[in-house]
Amino acid sequence: MQKIEHIGIAVKDIEKSNELFSKLFGKSPYKSESVESEGVTTSFFKVGPNKIELLEATNPDSPIAKFIAKKGEGIHHIAIAVDDIIAEIKRMKSEGFIVLNEIPKKGADNKLVAFLHPKATNGVLIELCQEISH
Ligand code: ZN
Fold first, then answer.
1. Helix (H) / strand (E) containing 90
2. Helix (H, G, I), strand (E, B), or coil: what is residue 57?
3. How many whole angstroms from 78 Cα to the centroid of ligand 1?
4. Beta strand 74-81 with 105-106: parallel, antiparallel or unpaired?
5. What is the distance, to the nearest Å, from the Cα of residue 107 to the centroid of all Cα atoms in its chain?
């Protein structure tokens, strides 16, 4: 594990939330990106060495839409940067965590990602992510 890569926040209206968080951080998001496979539109803010990701659902079946319906807007996941996501998935499974993506998938911000089910992590959705090298 390298560091906390970013914190993901589920929002209903990413345009409004971009304005809100731009005021909060004193700067605009450095990128916006849609991830079709996840049914989300995302935007990323840099806050010193840290990043915040906003996520808006693009369809009612999106995990973000379901999260907001259940819990409302708010912190959705914590992402941890790893060097070798395949090795970490194996390690997590052997430690008894529930890995939702046995095969990592392409996420936002040029990352391979895999999620751990919150059921086995004190209710916190954990995203493992590895930078895709060019
Ligand atoms: Zn994320």
1. helix 85-94
2. strand
3. 7
4. unpaired
5. 8
Ligand 1 centroid from CA 52, angstroms: 8
Instruction: Note the pLDDT of residue 120.
Output: 95
Task: Give the pLDDT confidence score for residue 134 in this predicted structure.
Answer: 64
Q: Give the neighbor-by-neighbor strand order of the sheet with 40-47.
A: 31-35, 40-47, 50-57, 3-11, 74-81, 125-131, 111-116, 105-106
Cβ of 114: how many Cβ atoms within 10 Å?
Answer: 23
Mean pLDDT, to the nearest integer, of 64-90?
97
Of 61, 59, 71, which Cα lies nearest the Cα of 9?
A: 71
- Helix (H, G, I), strand (E, B), or coil: what is residue 68? helix
The gap from C-alpha 116 to its chain's centroid, in whole angstroms, comes to 11
Compute the distance from residue 118 Cα to the ligand 1 centre, in Å. Answer: 14
d(CA 89, CA 24): 35
The pLDDT of residue 36 is above 90: no
